[in-house]
């Protein structure tokens, strides 16, 4: 296997790892994904490209669970995602086996990020072309967390974040409108962020909600449409209020 | 015939993550074994020859206030007492203790190794490892060396977020959770005293006295146990050594010499 020893990810003269940066480009071309952390709820939302007619949409789940209390959404190369998710799922069970305890969100994020980093420093492989949003509740303290990893292998915790296509506009929206929320409000905030860059409607968004008691729950189209309708109504009311009360004639 | 240990390698980072940062902590090494038609019988003969009898008495039990751990301190090689002052209660970290029964080197080394793994877990996860987790790590290691002649009969006692914890782990790969254990050649005698005197609602002094008495009685009847009876207490703030009494002196404490009345006194007969 000597032919495959040459590393693909090497430093450029000015200190860049171009393969990693190109991987980030691949992420930027991937579907939009957003995650919002509330006090008792965490929401993941992903853009769904317009459904191809003959495709069974249930086989293209973009928000997956890694364990009972951890979920993941990603943007980028979906095939790479499958490999990473499988490794993470095995690690979650392996951890349960060796220390008889479920993983913490931080632990599994560190593992996934470590895996992504390994592929930037090995011979004959390329980096994973995806950024992930990992959410979950700490099995001991019940504290909700949202983490993000990227192809370089760095990770950090967030109150709310977006990745993939148009992530900058979504992040700007979240920065302007984020506040501590719970329950329905958290879901609405996530959908509102996603609607900034995605065509309105239940069939273009996939939303999943995680709560401490019920675990991960995927919202179906009808529920999403209902929320979207509520959001549109609130937006219209806000616009009307801004214009001021109708002038008395 | 080369022993294939690839099945023993786990994907868990604790067992040696692919590219090693600390290769010393990896899974079991592999080595060539002698050719033999009946491998199982070969192992049986070897074991009978070496016969590690686990000559010792150790015990531990959970009660209302925490965990009490006690052990003797005699090391014997067949009929020869090689030491009366062996430390059989090993301090893994400030809130966890391990007891030694079986091969002294095996117990000491693997307990130190466990201490390293526990510390690494703390540093990586910013929280202490549970007694469950620590005992599981040790049990997994011992299982991977199963059949290779390790002799370890240990109890892992500690206090973690879920309260007091006590596990029995041995070199056969067994791991049991429990509230009362005694390990070693003197354990039947210790169990007798421990089981008859045990109550969950004991104070720390009462529990220490029970542990001390159980070890003493085991050293009295078992030739391979003796020396000093050490008693440790594990509470919410970690472990603390309560006492270390020579069992010879304890004997007179429990069975003091009663001054017997002399029947006839020899007196000077007055000169006629």
From TrEMBL, chain A:
What SUPFAM superfamilies does the annotation carry? N-terminal nucleophile aminohydrolases (Ntn hydrolases)
Task: Identify the GO cellular component terms for this protein.
Answer: cytoplasm; nucleus; proteasome core complex, alpha-subunit complex
Q: What is its main location?
A: cytoplasm
Classification via SMART domains: Proteasome_A_N
InterPro entries according to UniProt: Ntn_hydrolases_N, Proteasome_alpha, Proteasome_alpha-type, Proteasome_asu_N, Proteasome_sua/b
Biological process (GO) annotations held by this record are:
ubiquitin-dependent protein catabolic process
Where it sits in the cell: the answer is: Cytoplasm; Nucleus
Please indicate which superkingdom the organism of origin belongs to: Eukaryota
One Pfam family it belongs to? Proteasome_A_N
Query: What residue stretches are annotated with the Proteasome alpha-type subunits domain?
Result: 4-26
Family in the record: Belongs to the peptidase T1A family.
Tell me, how does this one assemble? The 20S proteasome core is composed of 28 subunits that are arranged in four stacked rings, resulting in a barrel-shaped structure. The two end rings are each formed by seven alpha subunits, and the two central rings are each formed by seven beta subunits.
What the protein does comes down to:
The proteasome is a multicatalytic proteinase complex which is characterized by its ability to cleave peptides with Arg, Phe, Tyr, Leu, and Glu adjacent to the leaving group at neutral or slightly basic pH.
Output this protein's name: Proteasome subunit alpha type
Which species is the source of this protein?
Citrus x changshan-huyou
From TrEMBL, chain B:
Species: Citrus sinensis
This entry's Gene Ontology molecular function terms read: threonine-type endopeptidase activity
* Catalysed reactions listed for this entry: Cleavage of peptide bonds with very broad specificity
Keyword Cytoplasm (UniProt): yes
What quaternary arrangement does the UniProt entry report? Answer: Component of the proteasome complex.
Family that this chain belongs to? Belongs to the peptidase T1B family.
Function as written in the Swiss-Prot or TrEMBL entry: The proteasome is a multicatalytic proteinase complex which is characterized by its ability to cleave peptides with Arg, Phe, Tyr, Leu, and Glu adjacent to the leaving group at neutral or slightly basic pH. The proteasome has an ATP-dependent proteolytic activity.
- Check the record and name the Gene3D superfamilies matching this protein: Glutamine Phosphoribosylpyrophosphate, subunit 1, domain 1
Q: A Pfam family name for this chain?
A: Proteasome
| Name by which UniProt lists this protein | Proteasome subunit beta
- Name one cellular component (GO) term: nucleus
Q: List the catalytic residues.
A: 56 (nucleophile)
Primary localization class, coarse: cytoplasm
In its keyword annotation, does this UniProt entry include Nucleus? yes
Keyword annotations of the record: Cytoplasm, Hydrolase, Nucleus, Protease, Proteasome, Threonine protease, Zymogen
GO terms of biological process kind? proteolysis involved in protein catabolic process
| PROSITE patterns per UniProt | PROTEASOME_BETA_1 (PS00854), PROTEASOME_BETA_2 (PS51476)
Protein location: Cytoplasm; Nucleus
Q: Which domain of life is it from?
A: Eukaryota
